[in-house]
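Repro case for the chain-ordering regression, as requested:
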Amino acid sequence: MKKAFPILAVLTALFLAYAFYQAMFVAPTDALQGDVYRIIYYHVPSAWTAFLLFFLNFMASVQYLASPKPSTARAVKWTVIAVGVIGAIVPFVPQVQQWLLTIGMYPSSAATTALMFPACYFLVGKLFRGPSVDVLAVTTAEVGVVFCTIVLITGPIWARPVWGIWWAPGDIRLTSTLVLWLIYVSYLVLRRFSDSAQTQKLAAVLAVFGALDVPLVYFSIWFFRTQHPQPVIGGGGSMDPRMLHVLLINWMAFLCFAFLVCWSRFQLEKMRREVEEAEAMESLMEPGGSSAQISKAKVPLGRGSQ
Amino acid sequence: MKSFWSITMATLAKDIRLEWRSKDALNAMLFFSLLVVVIFVFSFDPLAEESRHIVGGLVWVAFLFAAVVALNQTWARELRNQVLDAYRVSPAPATALFVAKVLGNFIFVSLLEALMTPLFVIFYNLRVLGPAWQLLPVALLGTWALVVNGTFFAAMSLRTRSRELMLPLLLFPISIPAVLGMVAATTSILTGDNPAHFYIVLLLTYDVVFTTACVGLFDTVLQAE
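-- result from build under test --
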């Protein structure tokens, strides 16, 4: 970490500067909105990054809840595989394809989303073992909330000159993003308010509830008028390829930035827990009575590694 | 070992008996929602036509707040004398306890709604323009949606500092789609403008999804120690 981090930080800063240059000077001006539209290069990449982080948080939480019991872990594993396989096939059934196109979604993007489930689930399970899954969950939730906040701030700033209103109440994307943000803020509040060893489990349960909630929020506003345009990728929206190019560059830069922040936060959280464990060990080691004997027996203090 | 339902019924009977003797939760809930109604009456002074559009929201906000009062009591009662720890070590299935608590809260909150709804009708001079019988499934499904998640999160917030404060913070974000469904369904029945079927199906879906999730995960929350 010590060597790689500064190098990566410099590279990310350069990448972000390049993306900024592309967004401000290279990308063509929008015919209808003028230069105002350039906020898209911050709004949309932040949104994608936030959703990706929340998705990772969900996967880490499921991993965390499933891993202690082998039978549950097996059941969850096959469920995730089934979601991936069924989700990859069903969008190409002609009837479903028709329906997906009417709601403005390409079947291929729906299938890719479904495949993300097993891919992320196994990747998270492979790379993060034991308590570090939970550290990943904290990290992604915190950084995700930051990016989601950026989305919710840049959205109204953009909406005001273009739509004439700050906020469109009842809009499907605005509302579901806001609710997602609220859920994850409550997740962080739960983490802050409960400092015992069960926090991780409770937080993981809440993350699962939040993930179940989001599709319901989405459907609950189905009938409402939608002000927000279709998604740029995987939806019916059309975009100048030059703009899309710049958008993707910006997203890559944002992803690098998010990765960097997540990485340092991950290490910080891990270190904090190690210090906590060491302190607990030390207090047991202190001379005096039976406590010294307990410490020799190596009391397992690993928080949450049940 | 006793069967699932006999344990559920025994716990439920115990809760109802306790409530019948003390009337703690119910009295607090009733007076609280009465206060909310009165404050709403002072804050909004609508015409009969306008009130049809806003009462759906007011009713459910009042019930949501009042339900939180009752939900906070649910598990706090079991903490005295370590009753909850006794539950934890007993061989009784955790879900039986959960279902009993949910049913108990469902009965209390439904009772509250039955008593408070006439007050709303009187204060706001309501006359239903749509099919009034549909209010019943909306009320039942909506109450269940509040109570099932509320009971679950109340058990969860037991494990935190300042638990009374924690429950609404956890419950409200998750309840947003349910509240939206209840309010929209009630409004569309009151005004008779459009059918409420979509929202009833939404509430039903919400109930099925979250009841399954709560029953599946309750053991984890109860045993988290």
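Ordering looks correct now. DSSP finds ten helices and no strands in chain A.
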